[in-house]
Amino acid sequence: MGCLLCCAACQTLSCACSACAACTPKKSTRCANLLYLVVFLICTAVAVALQYWGAPAFHIYSFDVGCSDIPGIDVDACKGDSAVYRVSMGLALWFAGVSVGTMIGRRSFHANCWGFKLLALFTLVTGLFFVPVNTVDAYVPVARIVSAVFLVSQIVAFIDAAYHWNAWVVGRVFDEDGYENPRWMTGALVVCGTLSLVALVAIILLFVNYGQCTRSSLFIALTVVLCVGVTIWQLKTHNTDSSLLTSCIVTVYAVYLCWSSVQANPDTCNAALDDSEDPQAVLLGMAITVCSLGWTCYSASTREYFEAEDEEALVSESDEEDEEDSFWLFHLVMATGSVYMAMLLTNWGTHGGQRSSAQMWVSIISQWLSLCVYGWTLLAPTCLSDREF
Fold first, then answer.
1. Other beta carbons less than 10 A from residue 331's beta carbon
2. Which residues have CB under 8 Å from 147's CB, separation 6+?
3. What value, to the nearest 5°, has the Cα angle with vertex 282 and ends 279 and 287?
4. How far is it, in rounded angstroms, from Cα 91 to Cα 345?
5. What is the pLDDT of residue 38?
6. Among the residues of 236-356, which ranges form H helices?
7. Residue 185: predicted pLDDT
8. Which residues does residue 313 pair with via DSSP β-bridges, in sequence order?
9. How many Å apart are CA 266 and CA 388, to the nearest integer?
10. Does position 226 have pLDDT exceeding 90, yes or no?
11. Quick check: 382 pLDDT over 60?
12. What does the domain layout of the chain look like in residue ranges?
């Protein structure tokens, strides 16, 4: 079934990519970035299908290594997770290879050669099913480290998106003459109020559902203190591009990371809660991952254009070089996202959806790091006043 899905995906993407050749360089880059995101989503769907329906029916010696030879293990669940690891590994290696290709071929390889690239992806993913490797011992430890790197890039992506959204809204609240647009101002305040209400309700629910654990209560309380602290700090800082909208977006993301941490707490005080894998947590985590990768795809193809006398947008040579140099980094981010996808679907490499202390600590440390990064964006313009941010 996985092979059939991959073949159908390759045919669909090959037809879609033929339209890129007729586009301008900037549009072809955006088209290519969108298609890379589609490849990621299709491979994720294939991994989920194999995890729950396809992999348990596979009877290949190389694929059964690490599952059928361990007493007392749920073979079907093990084989499902092993399928996810192999799809993730193949996709990550593919993005890493494309990253190397973009260092050599620059824009031409990034936006073209789709027949070769899709064939390489199909060969990698399919071939890994015939490689006798214990994925739990060989892939999971490395995947946990790489996933932490991806969470850092996800933090930067969300903070960058928050600043861009804030600038977009502010540009419509105040026109060129400095006059205030009441409709946009009201809309911005409504969005801020909604995000604040969502964060407040989520915090209350976290205390109700997870407050019986001392460690979880500490994480939740610390989240409240840090989020309120950075928001007050932002309100008192006037020399940055941040606003209440930016703080509200960062706060909601911090609350999500807190929930991701406390729901993974393996302490016995969580015994009253269902110990099975929470599909809502997986879906929410995947949605946030897709959003961050989507923003990465968009921002990787967006550069500053300058108006010429004939009102045509031109790109400076330095901007074009920077854009081409960013292609390899874009693919590395997608590669780390492919690895994180496996950790998300398998609850950080645990069998049977058991709670994972690795997920708990990675999530809460990521939250602390995200708030520190946001705090630094508020402090940097003051400390480094001679630089432009």
1. 23
2. 336, 339, 340, 343, 348, 362
3. 125
4. 15
5. 92
6. 244-262, 279-300, 317-345
7. 76
8. 307
9. 45
10. yes
11. yes
12. 139-277+347-383
